[in-house]
Design brief:
By secondary structure, this protein is mainly β. The protein is built from 2 helices and 14 strands; from the N terminus they run ββαββββββαββββββ. Helix content is 4%, strand content 56%.
C-alpha cells in the first residue's frame, strides 16, 4: 500500500499572516518641551495589526495618557488669595488639583526580524508611525463652585495642545507556537510638533501661538490576541 502524508504549514516552521489585537501599558518619561509641563506619566492603549508572511507589519494604535505630576503649578496663581487658595461661591477656600490627560493615535508599519526566536514569526520588531498627540492640564476642583473656572473660563488655563506626531518602536515580538502566549516589549519613542489650541492664556494674559516640540520615551509591554486559525496536520492514506 502506498502512503502519502500532507501537512499544512504551521507556526513552528513557516512565516504566516497573523492579524491580532493587543492591549499595552507604558510608563512615559517626557523630554524636550513636554518635560517642562509634566513629570512621568502613564500610557495605556490598544492596537490592531497584521503581520504578513513577509514579516512586514502594519497597524493602528491609540493610547490614553494620564498622570498627576504637573510642573506648571502656577497657572492658577492669578486667581488665588494670599493664603494660596481660591474663593468659591460659598466663601470658603479651595485648592484645585492639577492632573495630566491626553491621547496619541498612529498608523504604523514595520518589520519583524526573525532572530533569537522560536519560529519565523517572532523576533526583533522595528516600526515607525505617523499620527497625532494631544495633552492638557486637568483642573479638578471637585464639588466646589468657582466662577473663574466654569465652562469656557477653564479653557484659558488648561493649555490644550495637539499636533502632528511621529512614533518609533524597537523591541521584541513573540508569537507562541500554540497561540497561547503572544506579547511584545521594548522602547516606544514619540516626537510631536504641537500648538496651544486655546490661543490665549488667562493667567499670563498673552497669546500663545508658538510651536512646541514635545517628546517622550516609553517602556511598553503589550499582550496580543491572535485572530488566525491554527493549521492542524492532516494525513491522507491510499
Amino acid at each position: 500500500m502506498l502512503t502519502t502524508a500532507f501537512s499544512q504549514k504551521s507556526m513552528l516552521d513557516s512565516s504566516l499572516t497573523i492579524p491580532f489585537i493587543a492591549v499595552s501599558y507604558a510608563p512615559e518619561f517626557p523630554t524636550a518641551d513636554l518635560n517642562d509641563r509634566f513629570g512621568t506619566f502613564s500610557s495605556i492603549g490598544g492596537q490592531f495589526g497584521i503581520k504578513f508572511k513577509s514579516n512586514v507589519f502594519v497597524g493602528f494604535k491609540a493610547h490614553y495618557l494620564f498622570g498627576n505630576r504637573v510642573k506648571e503649578t502656577g497657572i492658577l496663581d492669578s486667581i488665588k488669595t494670599h493664603e494660596g487658595g481660591i474663593i468659591e461661591v460659598g466663601g470658603g477656600l479651595t485648592d484645585p488639583l492639577l492632573d495630566m490627560s491626553g491621547y496619541s493615535m498612529f498608523l504604523s508599519g514595520g518589520y519583524i526580524i526573525p532572530v533569537l526566536s522560536p519560529n519565523p514569526n517572532s523576533g526583533i520588531m522595528l516600526t515607525c508611525g505617523f499620527g497625532i498627540l494631544q495633552h492638557k492640564i486637568i483642573i479638578d476642583f471637585r464639588d466646589a463652585q468657582i466662577p473663574q473656572l466654569e465652562d469656557d473660563y477653564k479653557k484659558g488655563y488648561d493649555r490644550l495642545s495637539n499636533g502632528f506626531s511621529m512614533n518609533q518602536f524597537i523591541g521584541y515580538a513573540y508569537f507562541g507556537n500554540k497561540k497561547l502566549i503572544n506579547f511584545y516589549a521594548g522602547l516606544d519613542l514619540t516626537q510631536a510638533w504641537t500648538k496651544n489650541r486655546r490661543t490665549y492664556n488667562f493667567d499670563t494674559r498673552s497669546y500663545d501661538n508658538a510651536t512646541r516640540f514635545d517628546s517622550m520615551i516609553g517602556i511598553r509591554f503589550g499582550w496580543m490576541i491572535t485572530l488566525y486559525r491554527s493549521a492542524p496536520d492532516e494525513y491522507y492514506y491510499q
